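Notebook, p. 212. Picked up where the previous page left off. The plan for this session was modest: take the two constructs that came back from the sequencing core last week, fold each one, and keep the raw output in the notebook itself so nobody has to go hunting through shared drives later. Recording the first one now, exactly as returned: residue sequence, then the structure token string.
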Amino acid sequence: MTNKNSAIRLLIGCVIVVLLGCIYAAVRKATAEEEQAGRETLIPLTADRIAGLAWNGPDGTSFDFERKDGVWTRSDEADFPVNQTALNSLAAGVTGIGIYQTMEDVTDLAQYGLAEPAVTFTVTDTDGKSMTAAIGNANETAGSVYAYLTEDPGTVYSVLVSLKTNFDVTEEDLRG
């Protein structure tokens, strides 16, 4: 009888551990979503609202793409075979980038690597409005990069480093 009681207690203990794990995971997910929902974003658009994406990379390469009826084309080379998945991923990658820290009244962009940005990109929405942002130095400690919107160079933001790494693409990466 003791073996049967021990097995039942062990089974009940396992069920409790699994339930606690599920509760912990649910609370953690809800907290992360709540934090992201409350965070201001650098580019306040969803990927489906992006009609144009242009950028200058660190090697001086320029790219300019437009999306019409859900299809990306290269603005300066209509016959360029665009990798649609790559461009859709890039558009998604510039949206939803949360701002971790805001520095206002900045007078020296060089201290953030923004006097000569590593990447400058322009996003055009489906209404024809454009936003241009520049990306500078990485903050290794925080795992972020510095960026600013060219319309307001006096305000610098600390944002997710993936904003910069998203633009580490070559022409071949974008070729379909």
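Okay, moving on. Second construct, recorded in the same format:
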Amino acid sequence: MVKTLYLMRHGQTRFNELKQVQGVSDSPLTAIGIEQAQKAGHFFDQEVGKFAAVYASTQERAVDTAELASGQKEIIRLKGLKEMDFGTFEGQTETLNPPLIPGVGYGDYFVQHGGEDSMAVRERMVTTITEILKQHQDGEKILVVSHGASIAQFYRGVMDNPPQVRMSNCAIFKFNVNVDQFCLQFIFNPISQEYLYEAEKS
């Protein structure tokens, strides 16, 4: 049997609304963000029921999203799931971000500004989620709530040809996991109620 990983981005925050760089900085969910998380919860009610465990980064926006979407109060908080550190760009307008490098992200651009290397984010996300899954039995369903850049680095790290999609707030990635093989089943936007990606049926 396999384990099932649901990996989700947090709901809209004040910084998202203002289009400000938000990495290790934190801001609360907006009313829209709360509604997004609740809609994700409706999807999980039908798709999953109760999770064996719910994990989130230590940042407020992820923890609040995890509680709202799962309906569970026991959220395991892990620093390894936190967002990428953008250094002195934190809180600045997103228009200052450099162009993304396909398949890489921002590379080491933010290191010179006191931030984090994209490959370091990839390594810690893959390591953290792999360790989470080792603690669970086959057949269990796990929810992990993290952040846009960190999730993007994770799926680039575990997939040979990751789908190129724009990740909405509260986007849900479903992976079937067998040992260390991550098979992406779908990416779902609970707000628009549409699948951004679905694996081909074999």
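Notes on construct two before I forget. The first strand starts at residue 3 and ends at 9.
Flagging for discussion at group meeting.
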